[in-house]
Design brief:
CATH superfamily: NAD(P)-binding Rossmann-like Domain
Shape: globular
Structural class: alpha/beta
Distance between the termini: 21 Å
CATH class: Alpha Beta
């Protein structure tokens, strides 16, 4: 397949692009700078512009573009940027598809577990209602923008959970502390995080390109875990203690609203669609995932 990836330079985009190329696919990428190779195509999603030759003849488009959720404090202008970067990129792609005589057959446009807001211990399958909060509102509109793709395009919006990686990602700041034995649970630790390893994210995207699934797909591991269990497993795999709990008031004081929605919210997602379609995880259990994360090898 000829696949165009937007947001290919990030942690998830790099892993997905590598996996797709290893499977023999022809992968092109969208870049904001002048292209450095025939596989790169320039675009400016903030202005809604794109080299229309990028999508010509493409079988699929993978959209991972958007400003980093946890990179900076959530000021009003930053929240606007988080929203605009996602909607602008998605609409630039769907508009470009609409200008083609034969648009790509598949559009995989990333969403996030934040769609469900803070749902406590309730099990969340794909038909669960949207929650409230900044991330939920962004995800609702982000997914709606993806469905502006032309008729006949199979649109999939993977609601990606907390991605476990050996470097960077959601645990990028916590892992060094755990390796030193000075990390610990966040808040009460009873909130559920819908975790998934980076290789399984890449594998799931490759799977979704050829599966018949459409609409929202919960992208997480089949084994649910609260933060207490997650941190304990990671620390155990690293042979380190993890007893220095960070109280919720401290997190809120330091991070504000970001703490409530990213660290303290509970989303007990279940990957019902992926399970039903026969997807096979490399790391389906938390013990397997922790052992993989603790290995100092490259993300792959």
């Amino acid at each position: 397949m000829r696949i165009i990836v937007a947001g290919a330079s990030g942690l998830i985009g790099t892993a997905i692009s590598r996996t797709l190329r290893s499977a023999g696919h022809d992968v092109g990428t969208l870049v904001r700078r002048p292209p450095a190779s025939p596989a790169e195509f320039q675009w400016n999603p903030g202005e809604g512009s794109i080299d229309d030759t990028a999508l010509k003849g493409a079988d699929a488009v993978v959209n991972l573009s958007g400003a980093g959720i946890g990179d900076r404090p959530w000021t009003r202008s930053r929240i606007n940027e988080l929203r605009a970067s996602r909607l602008g990129a998605t609409r630039t792609l769907t508009a470009a598809m609409g200008r083609l005589d034969t648009p790509p057959a598949v559009f995989l446009s990333q969403s996030a577990s934040g769609y469900y807001g803070d749902a406590g211990p309730a099990v969340l399958r794909e038909n669960a209602p949207a929650g409230s909060g900044v991330l939920a509102r962004i995800c609702i509109d982000w997914e709606a923008a993806a469905h502006e793709a032309p008729a006949g395009v199979r649109v999939v919006t993977p609601r990606t959970g907390v991605v476990l990686s050996r470097s960077g990602g959601a645990l990028g700041r916590l892992m060094p502390l755990l390796r030193l034995g000075v990390g610990g649970p966040l808040g009460s630790g009873r909130q559920y995080w819908p975790w998934v390893t980076l290789p399984d994210v890449a594998g799931a995207y490759a799977f979704l390109l050829s599966s018949p699934l459409s609409g929202p797909v919960n992208l997480c591991a089949p084994e649910s875990a609260d933060v207490n269990s997650l941190i304990a497993q990671l620390a155990g795999a690293l042979h380190r203690p993890a007893v220095l709990r960070v109280p919720a008031p401290v997190l809120r004081l330091v991070m504000g609203q970001l703490a409530n929605e990213l660290l303290l919210a509970s989303q007990r997602m279940e990957p019902a669609a992926l399970v039903g379609a026969g997807f096979e995880w490399q790391h389906p259990s938390l013990a397997q995932a922790a052992a993989w994360v603790a290995d100092r090898g490259p993300d792959s």
